[in-house]
């Protein structure tokens, strides 16, 4: 590479980072999601490259690699941002049920829509596409909840993180082989406790690397271990993303562990130092990867899909269904007036990542990628509207039935408060 070209690339690379930072500042001032601005930047660069007769093709493998590393960083960042206590058990349970039920209902509903619009496609293939379109993007939610009340922020972070984990687990189950057997179902169920046990070992291994290691090179070594564990878990069809989330939760809630030998080897003071540095490095790494992932993804968007009536109809029906399913669960099942949680339905990094991982034998030839772009843009715009309209109130929840019995709805309602 020539001297001038190297400096040009470096200038563009750093310029995009600065621009992304300015987008984050603008997001706090206007509540416009920075991801929309990053996507717009990518689309603008695509047309600029075309105008300058500078064709530049981006291999899908690059987007997949960035998405995978970004997903690990973002889930770890979510775990490091969440606190666990006896008082928050209801919140965690409620956000889990919200993520699980809405994801399953949305998957079945979107699969039905795709089967209606693409009658020649096998329903199982429609289901795989629907899984990708039904996962809430924590990569978009996490940077967009800073202005919400603490309880609403925690609920949405937990829910988005659970949605990522559940979506990837279910996607892996349906794409592992062309024929799903009883053994596949048994392993899928058994992989959850196996993943939790694996998480315990990973936590102690990483804590040893971070706290007991006397060599200064430790944090990116820990990240490398996390990537290896994630990829290895994927090969063994284990919920390795759950391991990463639990590691972040353990580090951020180390004081809750009561086993005294642990505190002798890993003192609270040393863990606090590691926690602070880990949060800083993770947040900045996630910011960097998020920046280039969405710019590169925006670069690959062909905006001519807005002229395709089939794309607009299919995408609009899917987005409307996602809103209805979420409204029914949050408003009718919970019987609480939850706002702005209803609007937080963005699709993004995980949706794109799973889309590129769909096996060739499950591809639907007639599926237009414009539907994927439309759903991502439309759901992000809906979140932006909810974010702008939200005003923090002294009383965040308006209970419809004060004397209703406690249950899953009650717990999740508390989570959304």
The CATH architecture can be given as Up-down Bundle
In terms of DSSP E residues, the strand content is: under 5%
Q: Please name the CATH topology.
A: Na+/H+ antiporter like fold
Number of strands: 0
Explain how this protein is built.
The structure is a single chain. Helices cover 72% and strands 0% of the residues. It has 417 residues and is mainly α. It has a single domain (3-416), classed as Na+/H+ antiporter like fold (Up-down Bundle). The protein is globular and about 65 Å long. The N and C termini lie far apart (55 Å).
In short:
The protein has 417 residues and is mostly helical.
How would the blueprint of this fold be written?
Blueprint: H1 3-30, H2 34-51, H3 60-80, H4 89-117, H5 123-133, H6 138-141, H7 150-175, H8 182-212, H9 219-235, H10 240-252, H11 260-265, H12 268-299, H13 309-333, H14 349-356, H15 369-389, H16 408-416
List keywords for this structure.
417 residues; globular; single chain; mainly alpha; 0% strand; 72% helix; Na+/H+ antiporter like fold; disordered C terminus
């Amino acid at each position: 590479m020539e001297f001038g070209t190297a400096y040009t690339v470096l200038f563009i690379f750093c310029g995009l980072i600065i621009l992304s930072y300015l987008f984050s500042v603008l997001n706090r001032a206007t509540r416009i999601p920075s991801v929309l601005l990053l996507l717009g930047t990518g689309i603008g660069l695509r047309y600029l490259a075309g105008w300058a007769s500078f064709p530049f093709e981006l291999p899908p493998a690059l987007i997949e690699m960035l998405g995978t590393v970004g997903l690990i960083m973002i889930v770890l960042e979510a775990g490091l941002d969440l606190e666990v206590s006896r008082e928050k058990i209801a919140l965690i349970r409620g956000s889990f049920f919200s993520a699980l039920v809405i994801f399953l209902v949305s998957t079945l509903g979107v699969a039905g829509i795709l089967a209606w619009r693409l009658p020649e496609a096998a329903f199982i293939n429609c289901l795989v596409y629907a899984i990708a379109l039904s996962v809430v993007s924590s990569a978009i939610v996490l940077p967009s909840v800073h202005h919400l009340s603490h309880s609403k922020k925690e609920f949405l972070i937990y829910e988005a993180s659970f949605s990522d984990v559940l979506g990837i687990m279910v996607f892996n189950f349906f794409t592992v082989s062309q024929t799903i057997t009883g053994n596949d179902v048994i392993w899928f169920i058994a992989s959850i406790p196996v993943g939790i046990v694996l998480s315990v070992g990973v936590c102690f291994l990483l804590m040893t690397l971070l706290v007991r290691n006397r060599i200064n090179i430790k944090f990116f070594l820990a990240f490398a271990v996390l990537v290896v564990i994630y990829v290895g878990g994927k090969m063994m069809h284990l919920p390795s993303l759950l391991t990463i989330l639990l590691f972040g939760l353990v580090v951020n809630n180390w004081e809750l562990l009561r086993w005294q030998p642990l505190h002798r080897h890993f003192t609270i003071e040393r863990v606090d130092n590691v926690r602070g540095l880990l949060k800083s490095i993770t947040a900045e790494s996630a910011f960097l990867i998020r920046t280039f992932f969405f710019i590169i993804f925006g670069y690959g968007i062909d905006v001519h899909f807005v002229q395709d009536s089939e794309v607009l109809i299919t995408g609009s029906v899917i987005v409307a269904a996602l809103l209805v399913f979420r409204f029914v669960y949050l408003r009718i099942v919970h019987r609480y007036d939850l706002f702005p949680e209803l609007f937080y339905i963005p699709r993004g990094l995980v949706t794109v990542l799973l889309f590129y991982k769909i096996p060739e034998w499950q591809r639907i030839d007639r599926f237009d990628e414009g539907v994927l772009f439309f759903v991502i843009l439309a759901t992000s715009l809906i979140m932006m509207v909810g974010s702008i309209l939200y005003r923090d109130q002294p009383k965040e929840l308006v209970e419809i039935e004060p004397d209703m019995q406690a249950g899953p709805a009650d717990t999740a309602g508390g989570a959304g408060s």
